[in-house]
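Hi Y.,

Following your request, here is the sequence exactly as I used it, all 170 residues.
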Amino acid sequence: MIHLDPKFCFSIRDARKAARLSQSELAAEVGCKQSALSMFEQGAGTKLNDEVVQRLAAKFSIKLPSADASAAESPDMPPAALLPRPLPNAPVDRRGFCPNVHCPSHRVYEVDGRTFLKPDRAAQDPVGGRFCAVCGEILEHVCPTCGGPLHDGAVCSFCGSPYLALANNF
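Below is the corresponding structure, written out as tokens. Let me know if you'd prefer a different format.
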């Protein structure tokens, strides 16, 4: 799977708007769900499979970043083999977080002029389920950027990426 920079996702959104297409129309044309396209356009580059991303890039004549360029842009991201694994007898927090930036359970705060959303994992996923208890969205159970384990903050402690991408951060 290609890990896309949110700026690429925003360029797809801008091209769609310039073409005067609705998300529903474009989703039907490229073969994905409107909700997945919506999250993709908000910067969640892992919400669409590689084939759909390639169709989007071709439709709008936007150059798809290569896998080598993505790795070169984020040299601080640890390889998956270096991510910590839970100890065999340690309690595991299986709660996920809601990827919907509009979910009312997220807490908004600012740091150095950047706005972040802190997922309220206790409200969204009190029992370790599959769907957000507040808005019904399918929950994420790992960092969407590096696949590292979650914690109760807003930013992954392994790769430094925010769990929820907002347009004004880039």
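Residues 68-76 have pLDDT under 50 and may be disordered.

Thanks again,
Q.
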